[in-house]
């Protein structure tokens, strides 16, 4: 039996919490006197009212959550906050966005996808630009930090939510048994990385506003920028290398950062098979791109272009989506290669999207094992990760995830094609959404403002599937889920 009043109480609290964050861009509007603060005050009032209406009548209902309720709250978190997050875009009369585009912008930010329909960013109020970055930052760590760190403090159990956010393979990082304490530590690490990144960008030449905004989208791996030309606006190699470094940190399993925080040691990074593979993938992609560009471009300047190539590769491969170079001028094979790499994405437990490196490792190991079984049918082969034997149940779960991921991609791809989009652009659009990448290639390379409303809704659904790692959302549509 579902504890509906407890669920409604939690949703009300989440809405009220988001309403408070609406005041921050309102303050930015006051500081820069850009006249963009009114929409955030309006959003604050409406969101606080809605949150209070849901919370007050149910404030005394504090039941322990079942696994089913944990999954439901995770889904409601993204659906409700994505809806509330669209209020400033709806209230802004200057933007004049329809409901679909307002929802698209909000969900794209909160899921750290980073796709946008907005143009002329350089002329928008700083308050609105800051809000877009803030949405990504709040969504960056997802439920594992925001909900799991906050809800236990309100008397709500968090283990089910932690499980719901990461339904795939789990690795033992020797985290503290109390999820609430673990989540608070992860939150602290997230804030520290954001502050250090902002300071480095400021020292490298960004102004304070841009440094803060781009640190938000770097650590969250969202990819939003405050400029139409994204990071190409700054044309600064030092900034490019700084962001590349922090993207690699953000693409790493935050459990490894947790261990560093507790043990003050870096050895475990290079003992981790997933992290080593992650670095190997990025390094291989960088080398391939440099060689292909060098061999096919007569005017290639190694010294002036290496930082842009490295950042562009890391940005797309980790599903961040910053743009620092026009990939339409690259040899055609490279944008496709990088887009395919985004299906791998970051490490499990990172702020990146994609299927995650650890799953690709396990799929590769399983494929290798099947080849060995063809040669030695009676032999018994066990799979190991970090020198630990993995249960067959994990391998089955990874194959199930891969199948579901492929199914969602294909269904979305054909629906987008049926709407009138050509096959190549449909591939770009669905890949960008499902992998939470956000960057487009070809006609959609700068903005998705020309995309139809139907396609935008498909993209929003795919963003949620990608952010919730497919099964967390699919399970809600199962009849078994709703049976008592």
From TrEMBL:
GO MF, one example: metal ion binding
Membrane topology of the entry: Multi-pass membrane protein
UniProt entry keywords in alphabetical sequence: Cell inner membrane, Cell membrane, Ion transport, Membrane, Metal-binding, Potassium, Potassium transport, Transmembrane, Transmembrane helix, Transport
Superkingdom as given in the UniProt entry: Bacteria
Protein name as catalogued: Trk system potassium uptake protein
Biological source species: Orbus hercynius
Family matches, as PANTHER family: TRK SYSTEM POTASSIUM UPTAKE PROTEIN TRKG-RELATED
Pfam families: TrkH
InterPro entries: Cat_transpt (IPR003445), TrkH (IPR004772)
Function: Low-affinity potassium transport system. Interacts with Trk system potassium uptake protein TrkA.
Residues annotated for K(+) binding in this entry: 112-113, 222, 319-320, 436-437
Acetylation found in the keyword field: no
Subcellular location: Cell inner membrane
GO cellular component: plasma membrane
Any coiled-coil regions, as ranges: none
Chain segments annotated as transmembrane: 39-58, 70-91, 134-164, 185-205, 238-256, 277-295, 336-362, 397-418, 457-482
Family: Belongs to the TrkH potassium transport family.
């Amino acid at each position: 039996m579902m504890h509906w009043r407890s669920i409604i109480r939690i949703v009300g609290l989440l809405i009220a919490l988001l309403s408070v964050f609406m005041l921050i861009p309102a303050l930015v509007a006051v500081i820069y006197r850009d006249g963009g603060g009114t929409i955030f005050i309006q959003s604050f009032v409406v969101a606080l009212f809605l949150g209070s209406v849901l919370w007050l009548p149910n404030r005394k209902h504090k039941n322990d959550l079942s696994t089913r309720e944990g999954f439901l709250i995770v889904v409601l978190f993204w659906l409700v906050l994505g809806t509330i997050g669209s209020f400033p875009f709806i209230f802004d009369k200057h933007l004049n966005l329809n409901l679909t585009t307002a929802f698209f912008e909000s969900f794209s930010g909160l899921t750290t996808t980073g796709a946008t329909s907005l143009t002329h960013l350089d002329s928008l109020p700083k308050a609105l630009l800051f809000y877009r970055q803030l949405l990504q930052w709040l969504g960056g760590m997802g439920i594992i930090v925001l909900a799991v760190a906050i809800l236990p403090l309100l008397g709500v159990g968090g283990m089910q939510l932690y499980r719901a956010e990461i339904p795939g393979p789990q690795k033992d990082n020797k985290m503290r048994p109390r999820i609430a304490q673990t989540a608070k530590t992860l939150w602290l690490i997230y804030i520290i990385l954001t502050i250090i990144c902002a300071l480095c960008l400021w020292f490298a030449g960004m102004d304070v506003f841009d440094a803060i905004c781009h640190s938000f989208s770097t650590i969250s791996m969202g990819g939003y920028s405050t400029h139409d030309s994204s990071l190409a606006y700054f044309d600064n190699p030092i900034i490019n290398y700084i962001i590349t470094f922090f993207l690699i940190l953000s693409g790493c399993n935050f459990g490894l950062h947790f261990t560093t925080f507790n043990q003050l040691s870096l050895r475990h990074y290079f003992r981790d098979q997933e992290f080593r593979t992650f670095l190997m993938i990025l390094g291989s992609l960088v080398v391939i791109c440099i060689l292909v560009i060098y061999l096919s471009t007569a005017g290639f300047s190694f010294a002036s272009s290496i930082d842009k190539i490295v950042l562009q590769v890391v940005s797309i491969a980790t599903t961040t989506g910053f743009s620092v170079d026009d990939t339409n001028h690259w040899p055609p094979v490279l944008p496709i290669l990088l887009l395919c790499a985004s299906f791998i994405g970051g490490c499990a437990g990172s702020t990146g999207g994609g299927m995650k490196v650890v799953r690709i490792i396990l799929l590769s190991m399983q494929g290798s094992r099947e080849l060995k079984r063809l040669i030695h049918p009676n032999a018994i082969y066990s799979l190991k990760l970090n020198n630990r034997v993995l249960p067959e149940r994990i391998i089955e779960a990874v194959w199930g995830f891969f199948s579901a991921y492929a199914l969602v991609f294909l269904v979305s791809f054909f629906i987008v094609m049926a709407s009138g989009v050509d096959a190549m652009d449909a591939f770009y659009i669905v890949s960008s959404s499902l992998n939470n990448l956000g960057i487009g290639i070809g006609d959609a390379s700068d903005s998705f403002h020309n995309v139809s409303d139907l396609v935008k809704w498909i993209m929003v659904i795919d963003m949620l599937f990608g952010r919730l790692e497919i099964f967390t959302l699919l399970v809600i549509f199962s009849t078994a889920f709703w049976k008592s």
